[in-house]
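To: structure subgroup
Subject: Chain for Friday's discussion

All,

I'm putting the inputs and outputs inline so they're searchable in the archive.
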Amino acid sequence: MSDTPASPEESNKEGFKEGFKEGFKEAKHEGGKEGEKGGQKKEEKPSPFKQKAAALFRNRTFQVVAGIVVVGFLVYTVIHAFTHEETDDAYTTGHIHNVASRVSGTVLEVRVEDNQVVKEGDILVLLDPADYQVQVDQARAELKKAKADHERLLPLKGDDAISQQDFDAAESAYKVAEAKLKDAENQLSYCTIKAPSDGRIGRKTVETGNRVTVGGALLAVVEDVWVVANFKETQLGKIRRGQPVDIAIDVISGKTFRGHIDSWSPGTGATFALLPPDNATGNFTKIVQRVPVKIRFEPDSIRGYEEQIVPGLSCTPTIAVGTKRERERETPAQPQP
């Protein structure tokens, strides 16, 4: 063997090999520690809660009770599906009377507030009557003059002192003056705007001092509320007038209201659509249609909730079909218009 000293390159290679071997050993040593820790973790016992849960699921009594509960739920679901029809495509609606002015004028006084309860005939808005009072006074003066002319010519007609044409003209002027007075009095009465029905005030846009025009909406009176449920055509086979209905309204959770079937639409929703489908053209795809069904609330059921049940609320009606309760209340189906 030669005693010649190693070159720098050979020394670097030897150092690299030694460093690599030492690093590999350290990594192997650390991996062994991690494996030991992992084994220790796997050998850890489950928590007391998991042990109790596992014991409970292995308990024979629990298994029997759980099975009975599951079977009972399935039986109830099947029976309910055969004896009830329900839909979530339903909402409340009602009569909404849009109150408008029949004459133009300036608002003198507004006697109601938003959401106020009113009775039929209550005064809602007063318009300034000055201009219309002038028209009434003029019409009365014209009527008085026409009546005097007519009465003055009446005795002359019998003596043939005037022609029939002159008498007819005077009589016609008298009747026209009466009509003008009646029209002027009507115009004056229209300055007092009254409630068309019982209900609650909504969408009030009128204020004192506004200038209103003929036909301009001032406010609305909401009267009565019922449910319109859009049932599938396949659900209508067992539905009859008078059948009891349970109504769940989303905004009033935890409360079920009672009602009954009042009537249903003479056509499907598509029939009265703005652009009804024409199935005679193009390719046909059968789509299950829906028919609007009107459901009335039982008065005693909504007592105390009248202010909360308003038009436009989402609800879920459930109709009892084929149950004892339904058979006791069902009335023969009336022919639909």
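Points worth raising on Friday:
The longest helix spans residues 8-42.
DSSP finds six helices and 13 strands in the chain.

D.
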